Amino acid sequence: MRALFASSEVYPLAKTGGLADVSGALPAVLANLGVDMRLVMPGYTAALDAAEKKGKPIPIGDMLGTGDVRLVPARTPDTGLPLWLVDCPALYRRRGGLYGDADGRDWPDNALRFALFSHAVARLALGAAGNRWQPDLVHVNDWQLGLVPALLRSRPGVRTPCVLTIHNLAFQGVFPREIFGWLGLPEDRFTIAGAEFHGKVSFLKAGLVFADRLTTVSPRYAREIQTPQLGCGLDGLLRARAKDLVGILNGIDYVDWDSKDPMQLPFPYSARNLSGKHRCKAALQQELGLVADPGTPLIAFVGRLTEQKMADALPRIAAGMADRRAQLAILGEGDRSIEQALRTLDGRHAGHVAVRIGYEESFARRVLAGADIVAVPSRFEPCGLVQMYGMRYGTIPVVRCVGGLADTVIGREDDATASHCQATGFLFEEPTDAGLGNAIDRACRLYREPVAWRAMQIRAMKQDFRWQRSAKRYLDLYRTLSTDQEKSAAGLRECMRRRPTGLSPQSSTAQLEGEMSNTNTAEKDKISEFAYAIWEREGKPEGRDLDHWLAAERELQKRVSSEASVTVESAGAGAPAPKRAVATGSRRPKSKVG
């Protein structure tokens, strides 16, 4: 099986968050399971510098009027996977971040940057990039690749199937209506059953409509995004596509995150011998200027400083560290107002609070290894990796009971059960200062019970969040799509065999109905009815096309073989009309990526 994995960031080539970690680890595990896995990402300066074994660039022309674009073949430096870098210097070789400038402002041409990236990925998926390799399916991630499924749908006949993974529904790539004309999409894609969202263009919504399968990064988040509370205005569409949506929990790389590796930590340790962790804590306290006291619980926050992560509560939580006889270490960057509020804490709470604005991978590991507790108090969290990294390092997580946090941390809400023999951390429900503060207090109390604390550390370190289990679920999904593609190809070949001379591959179902003389009338009528029901159920803007005819043939054959008597009305029963599928919810999404 050949699969193309497309992402706007891949660790260690370029990273802003968990998307890069997933994009670096998951393809490598799938490759070990036998998939011919290849990566594609934008040719950022850092990525071009870090990639290994770069080959001769492949010109793919001037797409969207941006000048000549090239594909640079290379290998990832850590796993050695084949990689293509989409090289367009005007769009990707910039000082600043991947998605914005040094001051945190989005690049004003992000729509163009990622529309071009999507076109390059679509060409690779269709085998039209001059690289002599074509995938059986393409796996794209987040809003930056949302146009790829729509571009693939524009090709007549059998399509390359596409999986879209939602890493954070809050970031949707929403841009003004005026840009649609130069995105390279058919005009009929700008409808309520396409990329249109409240009069604007949504890259993510286009992907949600046209991808063959949708995944997200934890089972609980897959359920949450189908509700008005966390659906960000797309809950209706996601409910309509519920049968194609699955939550697959993210994993972490246990080789890359290994507390026993002296190359990663200054003082290695294991679940059997935690003495190295105590030395990591002492070194971290000294490095951060905190009071060197092994008996004081040290709490860490490592992540983006945004309201989603409840980072706005940190200045208020920090004020109570002295009263708790605890310490707080904060590492991250994000919202400028939160950064400014945190910068004032160092001097105000000297010895108890330390703040480092920015992000550096090796320092983040030292913080997680040296801390006793890691706080991940997100208001919503698709999956979260920090709590898994913390448990791997024997650092107990305090998390809100939401999304992937609830899927990965075993805990209870009261002191009596928090030290239960299965617990690996502390949960709280309400996203408030009081909720977070109470959970931290419970963790600090248990910390002062050494036997119970050590038992919880050992349980946490023994949790298994390796990628292998999740990768096998992705592989099963890939195989399903590959099988469906083979059936579609077989059906198309049969249609072409029976098709009268001169009938084009783009022929509509209506033409097929009238001109396929080898199909008997009863069968033709039934297939036509099913095709129309499928069109209504899926809300396809292109109408009753060949894809739906083929899908109807398969569905009819399946129902006949199971001796089920199904009417057209039952085939479309419960299917929401396209307008209802996207109208639920009033929250307007942000286009910023974090």
Strands ordered across the widest β-sheet: 3-4-5-2-1-6-7-11-12
The H-level CATH homologous superfamily of the largest domain, spelled out, is Glycogen Phosphorylase B
Alpha plus pi helix count: 25
Based on secondary structure, the structural category is alpha/beta
Question: What fraction of the residues are assigned to beta strands by DSSP?
Answer: 5-15%
Shape assignment: globular
Give the C-alpha Rg: 26 Å
Distance between the termini: 33 Å
CATH fold type of the largest domain: Rossmann fold
**Number of domains in the coordinates?**
2
Oligomer: single chain
Query: What is the helical fraction, as a range of percent?
Result: 40-55%
Global mean pLDDT:
84
**Unreliable residue stretches:** 415-419, 499-521, 540-544, 562-594
Q: Which CATH class of the largest domain?
A: Alpha Beta
- State the CATH architecture of the largest domain: 3-Layer(aba) Sandwich
What's the main sheet like? 9 strands, mixed
Strand tally: 18
Describe this entry's structure for a reader.
With 594 residues, the protein is of the alpha/beta class. It folds into 2 domains: 2-253, Rossmann fold, CATH 3.40.50; 275-461, Glycogen Phosphorylase B (Rossmann fold). It is 41% helix and 14% strand. A hairpin with a 5-residue loop joins strand 3 and strand 4. The longest helix is centred in the C-terminal third of the chain and has 32 residues, at 467-498. 49% of the residues are buried. The model is unreliable at 415-419, 499-521, 540-544 and 562-594 (pLDDT under 50).
